Amino acid sequence: MGRAARLDLTVARSHLASAAAVVDSDPVGAFALAYDAMRKALVAHVRANGLRVRSGVGAHYQPGDTDSRLSMGRGSTERWESSTLFVR
Questions:
Q1: Where is average pLDDT lowest: 1-5, 23-27, 64-68?
Q2: What is the domain partition of the chain in residue ranges?
Q3: DSSP structure class, residue 53
Q4: Average pLDDT estimate for 53-82
């Protein structure tokens, strides 16, 4: 795993710890932190597989779109390589 992917995972873990610490006093903020942790972890996974999110219109929601496919069991690294969302 590359340095950037490890950094993303470190940030994701930090966000999850922060979310757990504030969930009782700020559930909305905790949700935002947990969501961002998921996004960072997904980007780390993509980077660890040598891919990156394609830039351009709609790039800001592509990691979430990929997460939707992955959580529904419809995503794989092999399919991502041929996807319009990611490039090597």
A1: 64-68
A2: 3-87
A3: E
A4: 53
